[in-house]
Amino acid sequence: MVVSREQFGVVRGVAVAAAVLLGVTAYCLTQQAAYEPKDRLMLWLKWNAPKAACLWWHIWRIGNYRFSSPTDIMGAGLSTNPTPQIKLMQAMLQNTLEQTVLAALVHGAFAALAPPQWLVLVPAYTLLFVAGRVLFVALYQHGAPARAPGFALTSLPTTVMLLGSCWLLLKDPW
């Protein structure tokens, strides 16, 4: 299989994000911060706020754009010919919605299952999520290689945490 320049750019961007994830994870796991089990639900709920803010921003941005666009003001269900700008915003909203729902569910499972010394990863991975969303949106129009680090900073921590949660659940299902 021949790898295109664009595919190579995506792989390079994902590799950078993976290196950042490894560094953040290693740093967090060497810290002595530990949460008591009674704090797990509160920790998860508090750290959903930044993820929700990312989603809110997209919704607000689309609503604001629709208000000022005669072509798009009728809404997605009634607009017969949406502008390219609104299509782009909808694509970013859709991706952010998918990432937010998955991250919120996974972070909750991890908060319930992880040993206390690992719980610091919930806020750390949430901050990576937000940084990833900012990069993803800022670089989206520049193509797949440009947005790859942002996408990976959002999705890789969630993937690591999901795999960890499944492993912890298999170790102790009750």
From TrEMBL:
Q: Does the keyword Transmembrane apply?
A: yes
A GO BP entry is:
regulated exocytosis
Using the UniProt record, give the first listed, main subcellular location: membrane
Highest taxon above the source species: Eukaryota
- UniProt keyword annotations, A-Z: Membrane, Transmembrane, Transmembrane helix
Q: Which Gene3D superfamilies match?
A: Membrane associated eicosanoid/glutathione metabolism-like domain (1.20.120.550)
- Transmembrane feature ranges: 12-30, 120-139, 151-170
Task: List the Pfam families hit by this protein, alphabetically.
Answer: MAPEG
Report the subcellular localization.
Answer: Membrane
Query: What cellular component terms from Gene Ontology apply here?
Result: lysosomal membrane; trans-Golgi network membrane
Tell me what this protein is called: MAPEG family protein
Which organism does this sequence originate in?
Tetradesmus obliquus
